[in-house]
Amino acid sequence: MRKLLLSLLATVPLFAADLTGRVTGPGGKPLKGAHVYVYTAQPQKGVGAICPECYVDCGKKVTVDANGRFRIKSVDGKLRFNLLAVADGYEPAFSEYRDPGPGFDFELKPRDVSDEAHLVRGQVVDPKGKPVVGAVVHLQAVRQGKRVGYGRIPGVEWLSITNGNGEFALRVDDPTWLLDVRVEARNFGPRIARELLPGAPLQKIEVNVGATIAGRLTDGTKPLPGVRVAFAQVDRRSAGFLGIDEIGTDAKGEFVMTGLGTEVEYEVRPRMASLAPLAVVPKVVKTGADRSSADAGTLTTTRGFRVQGRVDGTKIPEVTRVTISSGVDAQIVEVQSDGRFEFTGVPAGKYSISVAVRGYRVPPVRQEVSADVENVTLVLQQEP
To answer: Which domain holds residue 168?
Structure first.
């Protein structure tokens, strides 16, 4: 499927442009021999209907010159780009998404490997054993005996990016801690590697292409283009959570999400903010083996439910925003001057409704939606 997408996109852009910039080390010293990659891309306007790494320009790379400068020629001028810079002995770095032109400047930090006893070191490789450059390695869990901690843990680096040899390193304060890490790499599915040891030789982590989910979105009579569709595991327990992916529907209302986990149940959920006042009940689709494609079928919209309420307090700040969230999807609206708010296009399901106001404590409201809701009240309680 990914090869088919790339072949369809492999055309000369009508509006060609160049990506230029500079790669330096500390103090502005040019890093001769550094490489710059086009990592992902997205449209300058609207939402992307293909995966961010599937554009024809993605994967292009150049070597910087003696002054640390680079130029990647003839990319699609209608896209925004995310670049990756790597150099031996330095931490890799990503740019923000930017339009073509100058301004992709990187200052890389030296990679500290002086205390190997406190480093969890690994190498990410593809099924053929080749290093995977620019893979993002997230901290998933910290293990100490029978105790397991999730999220950002004090004393543990939470993210690393693989270098030109596919290598990464995460520092831990306590060399007895074991780490679980989640690896996300362009053109590959996610992978969780468990119980990596500090002070050990390079620990290899192999990533595969992953699975695909395809489908179509309509209002019953015509396709719905430009709608954001999210993909999140049904089982969102921290130990095996692979993150949330998102893509947009194309002109035919179709979507193809590649690089998903294999043998995993995903909730396919068009975003509320993209559809309101319409809605789609999320559909559960299970992926198959590596390189397989699962069919989500045709998702058809209905009228979404309306959730109304008010923020109650002695004084309502001028700009107050209320959020309704399923944990995967969210919608945000502003509160009117009389404290009232309204969400439209809410699918059936369980939600948390909350508001954050500085100086106040506001308990969130848990709300199950199966019909229109009119009586949600958020009470502002001034902090002591």
So the answer is: 116-206
The answer, as to whether pTM is greater than 0.85, is: no
Contact 283, 267 (CB under 8 A): yes
Q: Given this model, what pLDDT does residue 3 score?
A: 41
Structural domains in the chain (count):
4
Q: Is the distance from CB of 78 to CB of 55 less than 8 angstroms?
A: no
pLDDT tens, residue by residue, 110-149: 887 778 899 999 999 999 999 999 899 999 999 998 899 9
Position 318 scores a pLDDT of: 64
- Closest by CA position to 261, among listed 297, 283, 226, 235: 235
Among candidate residues 252, 269, 302, the one where a domain is terminated:
302
C-alpha to C-alpha distance for 183 and 201, rounded to whole angstroms: 18
In sequence order, the β-bridge partners of residue 146 are: none
Percent of the chain with pLDDT over 90: 66
Statement to judge: residues 297 and 311 lie in one domain: no
Q: What is the pLDDT of residues 197-224, one digit of tens each?
A: 999 999 999 999 999 999 999 999 999 9
